[in-house]
Amino acid sequence: MDLPTLPPAPVGFVGSGPPTYDAEPTALPPADPDELDDLVADTVLDGARYGACTLRAVSVRGDSARFRGEPRRDSLLTARFGTGDQALVLVAMATGARATPGAHRAAAEACQWIARAVGRSHARLAQDIGAARRGDLKSGLHRLTDRSLGRLRASAAEQGIDPEEYAATLRCLLLPADPDCRVRVFFGVGDGGLFRLRDGEWHDIEPLVTDASGEPVVGFGSLPSETPDGDRLTMDLGIPTPPSPYEPAPEPPRAPFRFRASVARPGDTLLMCTGGLAEPLRGEPELCEYLTGRWSGPPPGLATFLADSQVRVKGYADDRTAAAVWEA
User: Fold this and answer.
1) What's the alpha-carbon Rg for the chain, to the nearest Å?
2) Is the distance from CB of 322 to CB of 22 less than 8 angstroms?
3) What is residue 31's predicted lDDT score, i.e. its pLDDT?
4) Using the 8-state DSSP alphabet, how is residue 102 labeled?
């Protein structure tokens, strides 16, 4: 009788040697007795099971921030909107701008604003996902993202802060609770990673800014906003117009919107993460190999997922935030 293949034993680090910093938290961030709501926990862990998927999510303060006593710049928010098969699960993660005092607040605000926007529109979004209306989803989520990040810029103005310093990347997953719907929707702005583990191999499926959707989804028949060659369907020659003395100066260019809708297969593991995990995954093959062995089987428990997601690699010391979805 063949014995089942066991995952590799857990490890503390992979690569050429141990990282410079300690493996556990060292210094707490400074606290203001009048602003205790501003404190950020070192680690946040969450999970759920809906429809055909099991979710695990974590946000961990990086080794560098732990050593220096700085707050975690990453923020994580998980929420369910609606009930029954019509419910929609949102996972939002954000990273505040590096070397800015309010980075953790900006990241938290970005997650909260997009959650409010999605929550108020969840019924329509769930219908669009179920009906595979890709064009409506992409344009609608683009508007909600722009509106949420606009709120962040308004908050910076109210506080008298440069909007470039009070900014954040934003990455989101929408997971329908309907067990018959396997469409998984990613959208966001800024760097990070979107990976899929299928048949024992990792695939980097982060949408390029010119990508329209990723893999085709049956029924996604809305008219595209651009041709297959990436040409916009409106006239835009890309030639900058000199500023007019009668008009306000244009805003600095914003990071492009990213979107991907694809159909999951049984046995897939989908991973969305911030740059703190995406960079070592792309730069250290041994980490990919290790997580392949750990995450190719049934979904791990919360404690095991936490241990796996914070396996360290020398030279990568940023916060790590990750959400993984196992398909039944």
Assistant:
1) 20
2) no
3) 94
4) T
pLDDT for 44-56, tens place per residue?
A: 999 999 989 999 9
**Matching residue, tokens 């048949």:** 199
For residue 60, the cross-strand partners are: 43, 320
Residue 276 · residue 316 · CB < 8 Å: yes
Q: Are 191 and 208 in contact (CB under 8 A)?
A: no
Question: Angle at CA 275, nearest 5°, toward 202 and 58?
Answer: 80
Q: Can you state the percent helix, strand and coil of the chain, rounding each to 5?
A: 30, 25, 45
Task: Find out whether 113 and 75 touch, Cβ atoms under 8 Å.
Answer: no
State the pairing for strand pair 74-81/320-327. Answer: unpaired
Type of residue at 47: G
Alpha-carbon span 177 to 122, nearest angstrom: 12
Q: What is the pLDDT of residue 2?
A: 55
Question: Please, how many CA atoms are within 13 Å of residue 78, restricted to the half-sphere of its CB?
Answer: 19
Instruction: Say if pTM beats, i.e. exceeds, 0.90.
Output: no
Whether the CB-CB separation of 231 and 225 falls below 8 Å is answered with no
| pLDDT tens readout for residues 245-300 | 444 444 555 789 999 999 999 999 999 999 999 999 999 999 999 999 999 999 99
Phi and psi angles of residue 209, each rounded to the nearest 5 degrees, phi first: -65, -20
